[in-house]
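ok so I'm stuck.
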Amino acid sequence: MKQVILTLLVASTIQRLPAQVAPADRVNPFIGTNGMGHTFPGACVPRGIVQLSPDTGIVPHNINGVYQPRAYDYCAGYQHGDSTIVGFSHTHFSGTGHSDLGDILVMPFTGERHTLPGDYRSRFSHDTEKASPGYYEVVLDDYHVKARLTATERAGVHAYTYPAGENRQLLVDLVHGIYNYDGKVLWASLRVENDTLVTGFRLTNGWARFNQTYFAISFSRPVTRYGYEELEKPAYTGFWRKFNTRENFPDIAGRKIVAFFEFGPGPGEEPIEVKVALSAVSTAGAVANLRAETDGKSFDTIAREAREKWTKELNVIEANGNDDQLAMLYTSLYHVCINPSIYMDVDGTYRGLDNNIHRAGDFTNYTIFSLWDTFRALHPLLNLVAPSRNRDMVESMLAHYRQSVHGALPVWSHMANENWCMIGYHAVSVLADAIAKGLRVDRDEALEAMISSSSIPYLENTVEYLDLGYVPFEKNSNAASITLERAYDDWTIYRVARDAGHDFAPRYRQRALSYRNLIDPATGFARPKYADGSWKEDFNILETHGQGFIEGNSLNYTFHVPHDVAGLIDLMGGDKRFIAKLDSVFNTPLPDAFFEETEDVTREGILGGYVHGNEPSHHLVYLYAWTSEPWKTQFWTREIMNRMYQNHIDGLCGNDDCGQMSAWYIFTALGFYPVCPGSDQYVLGAPYLPYIKVRLENGKCIEIKAPNVSDKNRYVKSTRLNGKPYNKRYITHDDLANGALIEFEMASRPAKYRAGDEKPYSLSTEI
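replied:
not stuck anymore, here's the structure
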């Protein structure tokens, strides 16, 4: 089949693909790049640490300590609405609401040399942009240079075609960064080893407190002249002043270094290939990575290999649907496969949280754990389709715990740094879910790490939480959110401890019921309390500011009790009252005034009062399965799929957050969702497509058949599992992992479920 490269034509128009194309050709890397999407369109391979992409903005995170709101638009470095490219950097986050990285920016140019940030940027047209998994291409109009990018796990590979007769030049900017600020780069160094090899490193202080990035750069043509500009003159240079270090001096160092390399004129048709390998360990490690992954390989060879890797990943799913549906499905799978990312050299060495060098034994070490987001669906999805990979991620988390002076599993970590972003200690959920799904994990060490993470006295008012059964509002502005999320986290510890027969399990069971302390009996909604037991006054369940919740409101956060939905139903007064409150989430309009000061919540991600654009609400639509009206899940999931995920530039309704938004889409397309990771159950909804086949790592397959499903026929009339009638409202991991055929008979009107249908797990009803 002839390869079809997805080409962006204009801001609002995307090339439509033929009906029969490979999954890789269905992917649209531009989806979600504007507004809240924060994805990057550049080149990477599945879970590679190198994510080579154009950066279009240089808005600093702060100026003299004052936050610059426009920096938020550039969390991934790229904004489709921009008309210029600053350069191509090698590390990016995928869809996060905070940022860092943008390491080792490279920019080809011709003519006069500029080294100040932004002065060397070039205009470009979307007409020349092409992107597909593992590949990116654009023409830099100001220099008439055609840029092509591809990648391996640890190396970015560039091919630059310059105009004939022009002096071919290249900048390596070691000052540039995403969420940059004056002083972020602590030190940078370049060594010109010979006329085709440069090594170096840079040390930064940002979201990662101390990020060490080593690199090795090889050129396909010899350098004829090189040098650098130091954008901030040091107060003291020692006896280096005896040298002219500015030009053709092989030892370059400073805090604000922009280096240039010249290759002389060329014929025009022959590109200069630039290979940039990264390491967190050393320049020697970067050189070894460069040689192992790129030696003897041309740009075209590496690009072909990158595409083959993506083809293998994306072929996990086979599906029928229209072009837009399949574009969203495979783009979601693409997003799921970007982070977490490999964080070790080809010899297995990696930099640990303790800043020492370690060697991974029988696992691949990973980084970029956005766990407040990804514990919900991304890691459960990996447990289903790629358990060996998720097992490596669990081992990486346990290594983090061993190296942590706090005795903590990761909270939100990247590049051998804990950045402590968001709340809770949700790595315990990932460990518990892996154990529940039968992954090979040392349960004793896992439980030790889980208990340790839940017992840090200085982490988010642990002392008060244990003493009162909730976090008091006067001690923490996010008190209600923390209490609700910790109650769930503690439930996961309880389950692992209970199954292992430990006598402390009941203590964590009691902690798991802490959510009860914040359900206001007068309203049935969660409400923060003060230490004296009184409720917060002047409380509004719709407001997201100053009400005790982080990135959410009480209307949505009240339902963050995935481990005890039946208990929450009882607290709210029973089935009918619970349904009424759940209905109100979808039917209550949420005025802009209630979220306008919250960066991570925007109108695009809101349906009624339901906030799909942020993670705390993601399980909420499935809670009808515990009620007498489960068909409402089937109605609302299709509404969310249709409204919140669309095949265009602003197609995502919120931050993808390292694949969580996309993992939700994949599960919901299948017709089930892991409401409570740490249990072995997936709650049934309704399939989105007429046919999906998932190829599992063990060679088995899950087939979902719903031949007449549509926007009209969105209700499940009956279900069959492996040819037999199925009346449970959930399906177990074992049912799926051993291969399954699930057949849904769809209808245009809701089906009346029998009262005897078995409901999903709840702590309050466990036997």
